[in-house]
Every structure is written in C-alpha cells, then in structure tokens.
Amino acid sequence: MRTEHARPIRLSDYRPPDWLVDTVDLDIALHPTRTRVRSRLRLRPNPQAAGPAAVVLDGDDITPLSVRIDGVPMADSAYLATPDGLTIPQPPAGPFVLEIETEIDPSANTKLMGLYRSSGNYCTQCEAEGFRRITFFPDRPDVMAVYTTRIEADRDEAPVLLGNGNLIEQGDVPGTTRHFAVWHDPFPKPCYLFALVGGRLGARTATFTTMSGRTVALGVYVESGKEERAGYALEALERSMRWDEQAFGREYDLDVFNIVAVADFNMGAMENKGLNIFNDKYILASPETATDADYAHIEAVIAHEYFHNWTGNRITCRDWFQLCLKEGLTVFRDQEFSSDMRSRPVKRIADVRVLRGHQFVEDAGPLAHPVRPDTYREINNFYTATVYEKGAEVVRMLETLLGRERFRAGMDLYFTRHDGRAATVEEFVACFAEAAGTDLSQFMLWYAQAGTPELAVTRRDDAQAGTLSLEIAQVLPPTPGQPSKLPMVIPLALGLVGPDGDDLPIRRAGHGPVERGVLVLTRAAETFVLEGVPAGTVPSLNRGFSAPVKINADLTSDDLRFLAAHDSDPFNRWQAVQTLASELLIENVAVIRAGGAVRHDGGFVHALAAVLADERLAPAYVAQVLSIPSEGDIARDIGRDVDPEAIYLARQALRRALGNDLAPTLRILYERLRQDGPYSPDAASAGRRALRNVCLDLLAAPGHPAAIALAAAQYSEADNMTDRMAALATLALHDTPEREAALADFFERFRADPLVIDKWFALQAMIPDPGTLDRVRGLAAHPAFSLANPNRVRALIGSFAQANHTQFNRADGEGYRLVVDTVLALDGVNPQVAARLATAFRSWRALEPTRRAAARAGLERLAGTASLSRDVADIVERSLG
Ligand code: ARG
Ligand code: ZN
C-alpha cells in the first residue's frame, strides 16, 4: 500500500546507546529558507554498551554539508548519509568531537516538526522526533547532554531570540544587520526538549521568588499587539509554580522561564526546558474572546507544561514506550492543581467525562493499546487518551491504594533517586513499593494490559444477620494482540448509604474496618461481606471514580434515585443521575429503532428537579448534573450495532421533555443567575454562567419561539464570550432565521481573530442537520479555511468527525467521504494532524451494518492510496486490523 513500510519498534529490543553525548554546541543562523545549522557534539563510548560500535545518528529530510572529527574534515567516503541518518562506521575508539553542518528551510516545513515558521516567526517542535529534522543526532531520550545554543538572525526579522536555559551572551554581528544570543542550559536533557524561538514578539513579564528565595524572570511571549491577552496565562504560571512547591516540594531551577505562543502547532503545548512553546489557543484570553472553558484549559495546560519541568525534564523517559511515565504523571499533577484552584468534585466529573468520552472509546476499538505500549511504528500516534488520561488514572489509583502520605513518600523517593536520569515505569513503581513497603507487581498490569475492566456487582442482603454481601466479578475484554487477560488489582472506594441517607461505617465481617473505605479487588471473582448493615442500605460503588472501570451493578432505579438524593460523595451523586439517564436513553433508542413511542420517565425528571432545588449545591455542580449523557456516551454504552440517528432522537426527546417539564424552574434559575458585576473568569462566576447556560439550552430544547428569542437576546447582549458562545450554540441547534443571523454577525464581529473564528467553524460543523455536510464543504472552501493551520483543520473537519455523530455517520457514507478526502489532502502537508483526523474511524466496527460497511469502505480507500505517510498508514492499518 505504501512505499516505505516501517518496521515495528519493540520495547523488548531496547539496548542502551553505544555512544553518549556530553555536550552539544549549536550555532544556528536563522534565515527564512536557508537556515544554517552547525552542531558540535562531544561524544564518548557508553561504558554500558556492548563494545566498539559505529556512530549512528538520526536525520530526517536533511543532508550534511560538512562533517569533521576533532577538527579534521572527513572524506565523503568515511561516512554514510541516508534519508534517515548519518553513520560513521569507523569512529575513533575514545571520546571525540564531531562537527556537522546542515542547511534547512523552515519556510517549507509544513509538518510543523523541527524548525518551522508560524506567522513569520521561527519556532521549533522536537518531541517526539523532530530534532533530527534540524541536525543529525542520536535522537532518543536516554541520550542526555548539556546544550549551548547560539542563535543568530536579522535584527529586524527577529528582534527576540530565545533558547533553553539561561541567556549568557548577546550582541550585534559587526558590519551586518544581524544580531545573536547565546543560551546555556546547565541541566542535561534529551534532544526532544531542545527549543528555540526567533521573531517579533511582545511579552508580559513578572518575577517569581522561589521557596528558597531565588528570583526567576518569567515571560509570556505572544504576537506583538496581543500582550493584553497573555496576562491570565502569566498569572496561571505563577500559581502553578507556587503549587508545585507546596504540593510536591518542587522548586524551579533556572533563572528564566519563558513561554511562547504560536498560531500553528500540532498539539496543545510543549515543555521544552525553560522555553515552553504553546498553541496560542492555550495562552491568549480576554473576556470578549475566550470562554470560561478556555480559561480553565489555559490554566490546566500552563500547569501541565510547567509541571513537566520535574516530571519529564529533570526526570525524563528512557525510551518512548515509557511516555506515560511523564504524561500520565503530569496529567495527574495538573488535575490535582486544577482541583485545588477550582472545585474538586466538578473537576473530577469533567475529567471522567473526558476519560470515558475518549479513552474508554479508544480502549473499546481497534486502536486500543496498553498505557505502556510494547510496540509502535509511529510514536506520534501514541500521544493518546490512553497514555495521558488513563496514565493519570493509574497514578491516581496508586494514591488511592497507598493513601496520601505513602504516595507522597513514593513521589519524594522518585524525585531524589532519579533526578537527572532517564527512567522507566518499573523504576517509578518501585519507588512506591519501597516507600510503602508493599508489593505492586500485580499493579504493573495496569501498564501492560489494554482494555477497560468491567465489574459485575451482585448484592445480597441478609436482614437477619445485618450483613450486605457484594459479589464482584471482573472481566477485561480482549484487545488487539491481547486475547486473554489476568485479573487486575482494583481499588474500589465504597460508601454505604443508610436508610436515613447518612453514611454508615464500613466493616468487613472477619476483617474489621475497611481502610479508607477502599475495597481492594485482586481476583477474577470475590465476595465482600459487610457487617452492621441495616435493611434499606444502598451501596455507593467506585466513589470519586476510584478506578477507571465500567460497573454493572444490580441497583434498581429506586436505589439510583436514592443515591441521587443522598449520596455524600458528589461524584456518585452525579453518577447516579447519569446512570438513570443512560438507562432511559438506551431503552428509548431500542424503542425508536423498533418504531415505537419513547417512554417518558417522570421519576427521572423528579430526581433532576430535586437537585435543581437543592440550594446547598454549587451551580457548577448542578450544571454537570443537568448535562445528560452525550450522543457519544450513549453510543459507547450501547457498544454494538450503534444507530447514531436513533441515539440523537432519543436524546432530543429527553431534552425536550426536560425543557418542558422543568420550564418554570429553569426560567427562575436563568433570571436568578444573571451576572451582577463585570465579567470575571473565576471558578464560582464561571459556575453560575455554566448553570445559567444549561438552563437556557434546555429551555430552548422544545423549540418554543420565546426561548429562541431569549437565546437570540443573550447572544446580542452578552459582554463576554462564554455567554455569547453559549447562546450561539443553543441557536445552532434550531433551524431558525435567528441562527443564520447570529452566525453571520459572529463572523463579522470576530473576523480578525483566528481563535474566535475557529469557534465559528467548529460550531457550524457540529450542527446535527442533514444540511451540515454541504455547509462544511462550503466552509472548507471559505477564504479563511486552510489545511496549513492545525487549529483550523481541527475546528472544521475535526469537530465534524469527532463531535457530529449523526452527520459524520450519515447512512449514505458522505460524511466519511468528506473526512477521507480531507485526510488524503492533508497527508502531504501535515501527516501528524492527518493521522489524528483518521482516528475518527476508530469505532467503525460498533456501528450498525450499513454505516459499518460505509466506514470500512472509507478506511479501505485510505489503505489503497499509494504513498501514504507512515503516520496515517499506521492508524489505517490498525483500524482495519
Ligand atoms: N509533551 C507534550 C505535552 O505536554 C506533547 C508533545 C507532543 N508532540 C508530538 N509531536 N507528538 O503533552
Ligand atoms: Zn505533557
């Protein structure tokens, strides 16, 4: 199918590097099309390697202009340059200095890996394997070196020159229009953490005093003129730095910490040492242009990248199989940070929604892989929800199993033992086993076995004995390459909600009190007998979502309504409502497919009304309870023979019913939550807006003209993007003149603002109408659309493919055709983003037969295309496999 068929890379093939690099001196003369790169490496044989070996350096799309060993030019015949590297078959026996000169064209770099230009500025992205597009190097994370980088550029074109570490020298190049800066990073690092930036940039700056009293200069650099919008990011950085000192004892280590925002970026952001580079959507914010959700994401991503300084940079990964070692752990840390800055229960609910919406879906399909994969063909395809989000859950389970104090002791041991090194998952887990004096070998299965465990819980009450028995069986379904599995260790936080609604103590017959209320499952099936349990007690299972599992419990609707009213665990209170909704929706999907009339569930409406009436609950939390499962949630819960159209109809019917039955309450809340001062992005104000906007959306769901008018009025009167966007999103669901008028107004109002125009593209791509296909085709031809900008592609085509279930999955296959066409057009420009888009097909096997056949045909059309990138080919082959 494609010309270069990459061989899989296997964890079991890991060998230490033959050569180590002690120092790297780079001299980079920036030029739009002819950037000259001189690299000087001090190499020495690795004492841990097998013996004398060739020097093999990676390269991608570069050619050597000259190669010198210890200052002496090498004959062309003394080294071998290939498309993927440079080999010196007979290097000196001992340490030597290797100098290589290359020339690269940053303007032609549309893959956005290596050195490229974004809005005229120079920037880099080296993770995972982009450094080899700048110069020849052993591009693997276990080769750690001290870097000194001289950057030179035209003073006009790039007045700002930034690198890793501390600035040690700068000046003009005499007799020219050029200037230079020299940056030195004293901390040894792998080359994927290298970065440089050159351009015309403005900055917001501050100083931070660390816990030991050192002063750090902070800078957030953005396109000149947008400095005002960098203020929130800068404050979030300060909060992150303080939190890491307080929560984990981690202090920042350089004199400078810079962040640069760029408009063209493949991912969210990158933790380069001392010089984070961000997708500008995770930096730029003002009340008029950013929603509350944008603010929350900015805070979380700033924290995430900052926290990598310890979990990722000071301690990095031995090889890319260990990616979760830095990503899962750092996501866990940023989740904890956001929980401390905002509402912990609301953050947990939001994180679990993301986990289920992305990771559970990934785990259930052909792209399922372990948190630590053991083979890959293209590592960029493993920056997944499984590595990140499930990786974070695995760390969270360690904390749940060990308790806070022993967990912290394990972290401390990890930081002291592995600082300055490239570590493995085994080494990480060993720190906890040692610090807690416990055996974690079964726990390692969480890293090795893919798939989402399914728990079946059967309850038996013995009123006479006053006991409640929970029979719990765990099953881990087969996943690609893993037909059968071993039982996992599962920390199941339990609550017992007594008949009066209060929590009861948890005691196991013959064992005594259950430590921290956490049952630890270790076997395929086991029974826990709990004593002192009066009749009418309802178990609250997996509180706080203590384990990333699916639970099938024999709780009745009455039990769930009881939990929805009384559970002291806010997560499970929310979960009870979701489970009730999900059961009703799944039943109605079946009814609709059979041609029947949907069931209206007064009990469910009543449960929601009770939550709405509970004034002790925070608005942000109530907003989460009122947000019923998404179409994606329902499809995932159904799991097979999925009909997206029936799911849409069932969900619409429930939304309409809620909008009608709860109208008076929703209307009162909508008025009561009206903003009373100027906009502020803080969590409490954001929560009020969130609830108010959920009320608006439900009020409008039945389509009453008065509610549409309310949304239209909110759209025009809003003084902030959250309310304006929410009103527009509500209007978008109703085929009315108000919708088209608001969409046209929105474009005119924000046409100069790319991040806001992305919202305009995304919203239209998500409209669940048959007309959306033509609308998206039209928008793809809009002058503002471009395949060169990943944010724009994700906004229009990504939103259509990932968030518009009925229209992407059109029965006539036209939605699939549109996405396949885009993947093919994009593959030659930016294979990484094309591959990500192709993952939209990952659930194709779960569809009903007509759509399944159409989706498969789409994947096969991709598979049959000559010269696909390795990125897309890998996704397509695994999806069909
Ligand atoms: N390490 C970055 C993070 O903070 C992600 C970089 C991924 N880049 C890539 N090309 N795959 O999560
Ligand atoms: Zn990360």
Verbal overview:
51% of the residues are buried. The two termini are 14 Å apart. This protein has 881 residues and is of the alpha+beta class. The model has no long low-confidence stretch (mean pLDDT 98). Helix 5 (385-402) packs across helix 6 and helix 16 (683-700) runs parallel beside helix 18. The chain has an 8-stranded mixed beta sheet with strand order 6-5-9-3-2-12-15-14, with no helix packed on it. It has a 6-stranded mixed beta sheet with strand order 29-28-31-26-25-33, with no helix packed on it. A 5-stranded mixed beta sheet has the order 17-18-19-21-20, with helices on one face. Helix content is 40%, strand content 21%. The chain binds arginine and zinc ion (ZN). Residues 304, 308, 327, 330 line the site of zinc ion.
Low-confidence stretches: none
Mean pLDDT: 98
Measured between the Cα atoms of the first and last residue, the distance is: 14 Å
Instruction: Let me know the largest β-sheet.
Output: 8 strands, mixed
Q: What share of the residues does DSSP label as strand, in percent?
A: 15-25%
- The total beta strand count reads 33
* Ions and ligands: arginine, zinc ion
Helix content: 40-55%
Number of helical regions: 27
Helix/strand/pairing category: alpha+beta
The dominant shape is: globular
Q: Give, in spatial order, the strands making up the sheet with the most strands.
A: 6-5-9-3-2-12-15-14
Task: Give the C-alpha Rg.
Answer: 28 Å
